[in-house]
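A.,

Following up on our hallway conversation. Structure tokens first:
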């Protein structure tokens, strides 16, 4: 949401949210006239509860629900940032639901729980990649272990900025843009605008096979198993496919062939290797996607393999040696409050949520970077250290979400919980108006544990 600058106005009539805000920011000079606020992601004190209420009322208006005549129960999933849900915040959410939104029934569901439930798990680690930071939450047997949460100051915005720089420095793309735009020299800011639109297109549209995020180098020791209830784990040994060329080959035995035969065999092997290298080079040379942007709507722009590097800030750090999301996952799973048995269970349920999860290859790449936390060899049995990482996904039997990536998991999990919780006649999983009138905002304390 946003309000005109300076932020001295207290009139809600001047606040913008949703499509009105997007239109105002897209207008010339809009970003200079508007102060953008993120009420639910505010880490500052005091928290922006008035802004949160304004956003929720806007959501109600989109659903044609008026608070004055509200008969719809509300299950709220607070954002993952910050990675905690203290009792004080739970009470304020409860107060807002009953006094400002006039909800007849209210419940809270932590985002990590919602994400795991949607992926058929009750124990695991949930990595949420946000705009400017990423959080890792640990869940054991449906209990969020807030004391094990970790966070890093890297997010999707860093990936967007990084990709934009890569595109600006791509000589092939620069030549392509000059040809398509029909210019011999660029006006100030002209090329930057086109590159920004290309970056926006990639993040909005190229989330399937168009982006192949590279796995970690030397990650042959990591065993990655994608979740699929209908099949055995061995059928989804992704790491075996990704790192098959890194598997040590058996030692060569002494040959009894003549020198001429050995020379012919060596020449044939060299020829095959050269052909394979040529094929790989040809594949890279042909690795382009066609992009269309608003500034050149009738033209197609070819973008090369540089696009595959967009997640490097998350996996390699914003600076050399900087913190990464996979290290944050490792720190969370190896937290001292967890037992060895709990850690083994958690490694068997790694979930990725946030908009970046729309890139199907990102979770697999993330898992390959987690190999330093695993056994060096699966041939060495251990009761205290995991030998694989299992990625969670939305089960195929949920027909309406078949093939969906895990960024929708929190919404799906909340939908599943709402159907069960609000049909519970005992009322163990929600607060109604009678409870609120008797106990006030503290009535929500019985629904979820102290965070």
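Then the amino acids I'd put at each of the 451 positions:
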């Amino acid at each position: 949401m946003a309000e005109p600058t300076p932020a001295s106005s207290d009139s809600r009539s001047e606040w913008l949210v949703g499509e009105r805000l997007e239109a105002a920011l897209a207008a010339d000079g809009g970003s200079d006239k508007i102060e953008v606020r993120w009420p639910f992601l505010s880490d500052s004190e005091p928290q922006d509860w008035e802004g949160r209420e304004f956003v929720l009322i806007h959501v109600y208006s989109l659903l044609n629900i008026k608070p004055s005549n509200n008969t719809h129960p509300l299950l709220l999933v607070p954002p993952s940032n910050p990675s905690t849900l203290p009792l004080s915040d739970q009470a304020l959410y409860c107060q807002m639901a009953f006094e400002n939104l006039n909800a007849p029934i209210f419940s809270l569901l932590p985002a990590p729980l919602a994400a795991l439930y949607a992926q058929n798990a009750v124990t695991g680690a949930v990595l949420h990649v946000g705009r400017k930071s990423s959080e890792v939450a640990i869940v054991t047997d449906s209990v969020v272990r807030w004391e094990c949460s970790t966070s890093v100051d890297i997010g999707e915005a860093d990936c967007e900025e990084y990709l934009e720089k890569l595109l600006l420095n791509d000589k092939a793309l620069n030549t392509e843009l000059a040809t398509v735009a029909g210019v011999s020299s660029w006006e100030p800011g002209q090329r930057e605008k086109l590159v920004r639109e290309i970056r926006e297109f990639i993040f909005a549209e190229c989330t399937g096979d168009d982006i192949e995020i590279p796995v970690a180098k030397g990650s042959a020791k990591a065993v990655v198993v994608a979740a699929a209830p209908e099949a055995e784990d061995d059928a989804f040994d992704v790491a075996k496919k990704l790192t098959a060329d890194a598997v040590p080959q058996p030692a060569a035995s002494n040959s009894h062939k003549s020198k001429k035969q050995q020379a012919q065999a060596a020449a044939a092997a060299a020829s095959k290797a050269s052909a394979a290298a040529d094929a790989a080079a040809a594949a890279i040379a042909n690795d382009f996607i066609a992009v269309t942007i608003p500034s050149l709507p009738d033209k197609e722009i070819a973008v090369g393999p540089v696009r595959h590097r967009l997640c490097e800030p998350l996996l390699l750090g914003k600076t050399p040696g900087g913190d990464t999301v996979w290290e944050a996952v490792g720190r969370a799973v190896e937290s001292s409050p967890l037992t060895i048995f709990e850690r083994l269970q958690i490694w068997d349920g790694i979930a990725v949520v946030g908009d970046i999860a729309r890139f199907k290859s990102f979770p697999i790449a993330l898992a390959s970077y987690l190999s330093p936390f695993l056994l060096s060899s699966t041939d060495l049995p251990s009761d205290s250290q995991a030998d694989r990482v299992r990625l969670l996904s939305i089960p195929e039997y949920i027909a309406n979400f078949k093939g969906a990536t895990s960024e929708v998991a929190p919404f799906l999990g909340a939908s599943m919980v709402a159907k069960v919780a609000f049909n519970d006649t005992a009322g163990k999983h929600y607060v109604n108006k009678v409870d609120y009138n008797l106990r006030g905002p503290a009535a929500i304390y019985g629904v979820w544990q102290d965070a």
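The CA atoms of residues 148 and 335 lie 6 Å apart. Curious whether your intuition agrees with the design.

B.
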